[in-house]
Design brief:
single chain, about 280 residues, 15 strands, about 20% helix, about 30% strand
Length: about 280
Amino acid sequence: MSENIYLPRMAAIHSMRPETVDVTTFRVTIDGSDGIGKFEYKSGQFAQVSVLGVGEAPIAITSSPTRPDAIEFSIRRVGELTNALHELEPMDEIGIRGPFGNFFPLKDMEGQNLLIIGGGIGLSPLRSVILNVFDNRAKYGKIDIIYGARSPQDLIFTSEYEEWQEVDNTRLHLTVDRGDEEWKGNVGLVPTFLREINPSPENTTSITCGPPIMIKFVIEALHELGFSSERIITTLERRMKCGVGKCGRCNIGSKYVCLDGPVFTLKQLEEMPSD
Protein backbone atom coordinates (compact mmCIF):
# COMPACT_ATOMS: atom_id res chain seq x y z
CA MET A 1 0.00 0.00 0.00
CA SER A 2 1.13 3.52 -0.73
CA GLU A 3 2.41 5.59 2.20
CA ASN A 4 -0.33 8.07 1.29
CA ILE A 5 -3.53 6.02 1.54
CA TYR A 6 -5.49 8.76 -0.25
CA LEU A 7 -3.29 8.75 -3.35
CA PRO A 8 -4.41 6.27 -6.03
CA ARG A 9 -1.93 4.29 -8.07
CA MET A 10 -2.53 4.31 -11.81
CA ALA A 11 -3.31 0.95 -13.37
CA ALA A 12 -3.58 0.17 -17.08
CA ILE A 13 -6.52 -1.89 -18.27
CA HIS A 14 -5.10 -4.99 -19.91
CA SER A 15 -8.43 -6.52 -20.94
CA MET A 16 -12.19 -6.26 -20.34
CA ARG A 17 -14.14 -9.52 -20.35
CA PRO A 18 -17.95 -9.29 -20.50
CA GLU A 19 -19.54 -11.69 -18.02
CA THR A 20 -23.19 -10.65 -18.46
CA VAL A 21 -24.99 -7.72 -20.09
CA ASP A 22 -24.08 -5.53 -17.11
CA VAL A 23 -21.00 -7.19 -15.51
CA THR A 24 -17.46 -6.94 -16.87
CA THR A 25 -14.22 -8.32 -15.48
CA PHE A 26 -11.42 -5.75 -15.70
CA ARG A 27 -7.87 -7.12 -15.77
CA VAL A 28 -5.41 -4.38 -14.85
CA THR A 29 -1.70 -4.01 -14.24
CA ILE A 30 0.43 -1.56 -12.25
CA ASP A 31 3.84 -1.02 -13.82
CA GLY A 32 5.54 -0.13 -10.52
CA SER A 33 7.16 3.02 -11.92
CA ASP A 34 5.79 4.97 -8.94
CA GLY A 35 8.46 3.30 -6.81
CA ILE A 36 6.00 1.68 -4.41
CA GLY A 37 6.42 -1.85 -5.74
CA LYS A 38 3.88 -4.57 -6.35
CA PHE A 39 0.24 -4.29 -5.34
CA GLU A 40 0.10 -7.02 -2.70
CA TYR A 41 -3.22 -8.23 -1.29
CA LYS A 42 -5.01 -11.26 0.16
CA SER A 43 -8.23 -12.99 -0.83
CA GLY A 44 -11.18 -11.07 0.61
CA GLN A 45 -9.63 -7.61 0.54
CA PHE A 46 -10.93 -4.77 -1.59
CA ALA A 47 -9.61 -1.68 -3.32
CA GLN A 48 -10.93 1.77 -4.05
CA VAL A 49 -11.27 1.93 -7.82
CA SER A 50 -11.53 5.34 -9.48
CA VAL A 51 -12.00 7.08 -12.80
CA LEU A 52 -10.33 10.47 -12.64
CA GLY A 53 -12.88 13.25 -12.79
CA VAL A 54 -15.77 10.91 -12.00
CA GLY A 55 -15.20 9.36 -8.57
CA GLU A 56 -14.30 6.15 -6.80
CA ALA A 57 -15.94 3.21 -5.05
CA PRO A 58 -14.87 0.18 -3.00
CA ILE A 59 -14.66 -2.90 -5.24
CA ALA A 60 -13.86 -6.47 -4.22
CA ILE A 61 -10.71 -7.95 -5.73
CA THR A 62 -11.72 -10.88 -7.92
CA SER A 63 -8.27 -12.27 -8.72
CA SER A 64 -6.07 -14.38 -6.46
CA PRO A 65 -2.72 -13.28 -4.99
CA THR A 66 -1.38 -16.66 -6.12
CA ARG A 67 -1.58 -15.32 -9.68
CA PRO A 68 0.29 -12.00 -9.41
CA ASP A 69 0.54 -11.10 -13.10
CA ALA A 70 -2.52 -8.84 -12.91
CA ILE A 71 -5.33 -7.64 -10.65
CA GLU A 72 -8.95 -8.31 -11.56
CA PHE A 73 -12.23 -6.64 -10.62
CA SER A 74 -15.65 -7.88 -11.73
CA ILE A 75 -17.87 -4.81 -11.79
CA ARG A 76 -21.60 -4.40 -12.36
CA ARG A 77 -22.87 -1.31 -14.15
CA VAL A 78 -25.08 0.35 -11.52
CA GLY A 79 -24.23 4.06 -11.35
CA GLU A 80 -22.14 6.98 -12.56
CA LEU A 81 -18.73 5.53 -11.69
CA THR A 82 -19.43 2.00 -12.89
CA ASN A 83 -20.99 3.37 -16.09
CA ALA A 84 -17.78 5.35 -16.67
CA LEU A 85 -15.68 2.24 -16.07
CA HIS A 86 -17.68 0.27 -18.62
CA GLU A 87 -17.11 2.99 -21.20
CA LEU A 88 -13.32 2.61 -20.95
CA GLU A 89 -11.20 0.51 -23.27
CA PRO A 90 -8.03 -1.58 -22.96
CA MET A 91 -4.93 0.59 -22.38
CA ASP A 92 -7.00 3.23 -20.59
CA GLU A 93 -6.00 3.89 -16.98
CA ILE A 94 -7.93 3.72 -13.73
CA GLY A 95 -6.92 4.61 -10.18
CA ILE A 96 -6.50 2.01 -7.44
CA ARG A 97 -6.08 2.64 -3.71
CA GLY A 98 -5.49 -0.11 -1.23
CA PRO A 99 -5.71 -2.90 -0.53
CA PHE A 100 -8.10 -2.37 2.37
CA GLY A 101 -9.91 -4.52 4.90
CA ASN A 102 -9.24 -7.96 6.29
CA PHE A 103 -9.28 -11.25 4.42
CA PHE A 104 -10.58 -14.80 4.43
CA PRO A 105 -8.64 -16.91 7.00
CA LEU A 106 -7.46 -19.49 4.49
CA LYS A 107 -4.51 -20.46 6.68
CA ASP A 108 -6.89 -21.48 9.46
CA MET A 109 -8.94 -23.53 6.98
CA GLU A 110 -6.08 -25.75 5.91
CA GLY A 111 -6.98 -29.42 6.31
CA GLN A 112 -10.70 -28.64 6.21
CA ASN A 113 -13.40 -29.15 3.59
CA LEU A 114 -14.69 -25.92 2.05
CA LEU A 115 -18.29 -25.09 1.19
CA ILE A 116 -18.36 -21.93 -0.96
CA ILE A 117 -21.81 -20.43 -1.56
CA GLY A 118 -22.34 -17.47 -3.88
CA GLY A 119 -25.23 -15.56 -5.37
CA GLY A 120 -25.12 -13.18 -8.33
CA ILE A 121 -22.19 -10.75 -8.32
CA GLY A 122 -21.36 -12.14 -4.84
CA LEU A 123 -19.28 -14.80 -6.57
CA SER A 124 -16.75 -12.06 -7.38
CA PRO A 125 -14.82 -12.01 -4.04
CA LEU A 126 -15.37 -15.76 -3.70
CA ARG A 127 -13.56 -16.34 -6.99
CA SER A 128 -10.39 -15.04 -5.32
CA VAL A 129 -10.80 -17.75 -2.68
CA ILE A 130 -11.62 -20.42 -5.27
CA LEU A 131 -8.51 -19.72 -7.37
CA ASN A 132 -6.36 -19.41 -4.24
CA VAL A 133 -7.35 -22.81 -2.87
CA PHE A 134 -7.06 -24.38 -6.32
CA ASP A 135 -3.46 -23.16 -6.48
CA ASN A 136 -2.87 -24.66 -3.03
CA ARG A 137 -5.08 -27.70 -3.59
CA ALA A 138 -3.16 -30.16 -1.39
CA LYS A 139 -3.78 -28.02 1.70
CA TYR A 140 -7.57 -28.48 1.70
CA GLY A 141 -10.12 -31.28 1.72
CA LYS A 142 -13.04 -31.53 -0.66
CA ILE A 143 -14.45 -28.35 -2.17
CA ASP A 144 -18.12 -27.77 -2.94
CA ILE A 145 -19.08 -24.59 -4.79
CA ILE A 146 -22.77 -23.68 -4.84
CA TYR A 147 -23.63 -20.75 -7.07
CA GLY A 148 -26.91 -19.25 -8.20
CA ALA A 149 -28.21 -16.28 -10.17
CA ARG A 150 -31.56 -14.93 -11.30
CA SER A 151 -31.30 -16.49 -14.75
CA PRO A 152 -28.76 -18.40 -16.87
CA GLN A 153 -27.81 -15.09 -18.49
CA ASP A 154 -26.89 -13.64 -15.07
CA LEU A 155 -24.31 -16.32 -14.18
CA ILE A 156 -20.77 -14.92 -14.12
CA PHE A 157 -17.42 -16.61 -14.86
CA THR A 158 -19.17 -19.19 -17.07
CA SER A 159 -16.04 -19.59 -19.20
CA GLU A 160 -14.23 -21.00 -16.15
CA TYR A 161 -16.74 -23.61 -14.94
CA GLU A 162 -15.30 -26.48 -16.94
CA GLU A 163 -11.83 -25.79 -15.56
CA TRP A 164 -13.17 -25.59 -11.99
CA GLN A 165 -14.95 -28.92 -12.29
CA GLU A 166 -11.76 -30.61 -13.45
CA VAL A 167 -9.94 -29.71 -10.22
CA ASP A 168 -9.41 -32.74 -7.99
CA ASN A 169 -12.16 -33.47 -5.44
CA THR A 170 -14.16 -30.38 -6.42
CA ARG A 171 -17.87 -30.15 -7.26
CA LEU A 172 -19.66 -27.18 -8.80
CA HIS A 173 -23.42 -26.93 -8.21
CA LEU A 174 -25.32 -24.36 -10.30
CA THR A 175 -28.87 -23.10 -9.93
CA VAL A 176 -30.99 -20.26 -11.32
CA ASP A 177 -34.18 -18.66 -10.05
CA ARG A 178 -35.76 -18.92 -13.50
CA GLY A 179 -34.60 -21.23 -16.26
CA ASP A 180 -35.16 -21.06 -20.02
CA GLU A 181 -35.50 -23.55 -22.85
CA GLU A 182 -31.75 -24.13 -23.01
CA TRP A 183 -31.11 -24.42 -19.26
CA LYS A 184 -30.64 -28.05 -18.17
CA GLY A 185 -29.49 -27.39 -14.60
CA ASN A 186 -31.28 -26.88 -11.32
CA VAL A 187 -34.01 -24.26 -10.96
CA GLY A 188 -34.54 -22.86 -7.49
CA LEU A 189 -33.21 -20.47 -4.89
CA VAL A 190 -29.73 -20.97 -3.44
CA PRO A 191 -30.86 -21.70 0.17
CA THR A 192 -33.31 -24.36 -1.06
CA PHE A 193 -30.66 -25.87 -3.32
CA LEU A 194 -28.23 -25.90 -0.37
CA ARG A 195 -30.68 -27.96 1.68
CA GLU A 196 -31.14 -30.39 -1.21
CA ILE A 197 -27.38 -30.90 -1.57
CA ASN A 198 -27.24 -31.44 2.19
CA PRO A 199 -23.48 -30.97 2.77
CA SER A 200 -22.00 -32.37 5.95
CA PRO A 201 -20.74 -29.84 8.52
CA GLU A 202 -18.04 -32.25 9.69
CA ASN A 203 -14.63 -30.59 9.38
CA THR A 204 -16.15 -28.07 6.96
CA THR A 205 -16.06 -24.28 6.84
CA SER A 206 -18.64 -22.40 4.80
CA ILE A 207 -17.95 -19.11 3.03
CA THR A 208 -20.87 -17.19 1.55
CA CYS A 209 -21.41 -13.93 -0.32
CA GLY A 210 -24.36 -12.58 -2.25
CA PRO A 211 -27.44 -10.39 -1.84
CA PRO A 212 -28.24 -9.75 1.86
CA ILE A 213 -31.55 -11.62 1.66
CA MET A 214 -29.78 -14.65 0.19
CA ILE A 215 -27.11 -14.57 2.90
CA LYS A 216 -29.81 -14.44 5.59
CA PHE A 217 -31.55 -17.58 4.36
CA VAL A 218 -28.29 -19.37 3.54
CA ILE A 219 -27.21 -18.87 7.15
CA GLU A 220 -30.54 -20.27 8.36
CA ALA A 221 -30.06 -23.32 6.13
CA LEU A 222 -26.48 -23.81 7.32
CA HIS A 223 -27.63 -23.76 10.94
CA GLU A 224 -30.28 -26.37 10.11
CA LEU A 225 -27.56 -28.52 8.55
CA GLY A 226 -25.48 -28.32 11.74
CA PHE A 227 -22.89 -25.67 10.90
CA SER A 228 -21.73 -23.68 13.93
CA SER A 229 -21.50 -19.88 13.86
CA GLU A 230 -17.70 -20.13 14.01
CA ARG A 231 -17.70 -22.15 10.77
CA ILE A 232 -19.88 -19.72 8.78
CA ILE A 233 -17.99 -16.84 7.16
CA THR A 234 -19.48 -14.00 5.13
CA THR A 235 -18.80 -10.43 4.03
CA LEU A 236 -20.55 -7.08 4.55
CA GLU A 237 -18.86 -5.26 1.68
CA ARG A 238 -22.03 -3.56 0.43
CA ARG A 239 -21.99 -1.26 3.46
CA MET A 240 -18.64 0.37 2.68
CA LYS A 241 -17.80 3.72 1.10
CA CYS A 242 -14.54 5.47 2.09
CA GLY A 243 -12.55 2.34 2.94
CA VAL A 244 -10.54 3.89 5.77
CA GLY A 245 -13.02 4.37 8.62
CA LYS A 246 -13.50 8.11 8.17
CA CYS A 247 -17.03 8.52 6.75
CA GLY A 248 -18.76 6.33 9.35
CA ARG A 249 -21.15 4.79 6.85
CA CYS A 250 -20.11 1.23 7.71
CA ASN A 251 -20.00 1.70 11.50
CA ILE A 252 -21.74 -1.03 13.53
CA GLY A 253 -21.30 -0.55 17.25
CA SER A 254 -17.55 -0.37 17.87
CA LYS A 255 -16.71 -1.90 14.48
CA TYR A 256 -16.05 -0.40 11.08
CA VAL A 257 -16.72 -2.85 8.27
CA CYS A 258 -13.97 -1.36 6.09
CA LEU A 259 -11.38 -1.70 8.87
CA ASP A 260 -12.50 -4.70 10.94
CA GLY A 261 -14.05 -6.51 7.95
CA PRO A 262 -15.46 -6.90 5.42
CA VAL A 263 -14.92 -10.59 6.28
CA PHE A 264 -16.60 -11.78 9.49
CA THR A 265 -17.55 -15.09 11.01
CA LEU A 266 -21.21 -15.36 11.95
CA LYS A 267 -20.04 -15.63 15.57
CA GLN A 268 -18.50 -12.17 15.28
CA LEU A 269 -21.67 -10.76 13.71
CA GLU A 270 -23.81 -12.20 16.46
CA GLU A 271 -21.76 -10.21 18.98
CA MET A 272 -22.39 -6.94 17.13
CA PRO A 273 -25.50 -4.72 17.46
CA SER A 274 -28.41 -5.71 15.26
CA ASP A 275 -28.45 -3.48 12.16
